[in-house]
Structure formats: C-alpha cells, structure tokens
C-alpha cells in the first residue's frame, strides 16, 4: 500500500459518486464492477503523473485486519495494463504518452 495512490483511488470513487457516474455493474466479463475500472484508471493517471509504476492488476480485498492494519487479498484479479503502458479500460489510452518520462 502507498497512501498517495490509495488516496487517489478513493478520490476517484468519491468524484464518481458525486457526479452520479459511479457504475456498479460488472464491466464486460471481468467479474469486477465498472467503478473499479474507472477508479483504477484514475489511479494510474495519477501514478503516471507522479512517475510511479502503474498498477498492473486489481486484487479484491479478502480481509482487513483492524488490529494490525494489514490487508489480505484474493490472488490474480483482472489485468489493468496491456503492452506495458496502455489502459485495458480506456481504448488506446497510453499512460506513457500522456506523461512521458522526464529526462
Ligand atoms: Zn476501489
């Protein structure tokens, strides 16, 4: 977990909820709500702007331990990135092109 990118993800949910665009149905046959695709795309836009590695997979939270603060995840959620830096959710969206590496 990395707090700034986790916060970006949650802000994505909040913005979608406030604009009435939070899509709760599964997206295609991925088994994952479209809202998670929307917010992981936003999270990856922020990661790209911060020159951080993109989030490549979505993992569903299995259990949060409130005593230790540790999270346990189901393995192997859907892949979010293809060809290294393209969005799976938004066709032809290239995170690298939008935020080229600084020199
Ligand atoms: Zn989420």
Question: How would you characterize this protein structure?
Answer:
Helices cover 36% and strands 11% of the residues. It is α+β, with helices and mostly antiparallel strands. The chain has one domain (3-98). It has a two-stranded antiparallel ribbon with strand order 1-2. Helix 1 packs across helix 2. The two termini are 27 Å apart. The structure holds zinc ion. Zinc ion (ZN) binds at residues 9, 13, 36, 39. Residues 9, 13, 36, 39 line the site of zinc ion (ZN).
Number of domains: 1
The end-to-end distance, rounded to whole angstroms, is 27 Å
| Class based on secondary structure composition and strand pairing | alpha+beta
Shape: globular
For the largest beta-sheet, the strand count, sense and barrel status come to: 2 strands, antiparallel
Using the CA coordinates, give the radius of gyration: 14 Å
Overall mean confidence score, pLDDT: 90
Give the bound compounds: zinc ion
The helix count comes to: 3
pLDDT < 50 stretches: none
**Number of beta-strand segments:** 4
**Helix content, binned percent:** 25-40%
Strand order of the largest sheet: 1-2
The proportion of strand residues reads 5-15%
Order of helices and strands: HHEEEEH
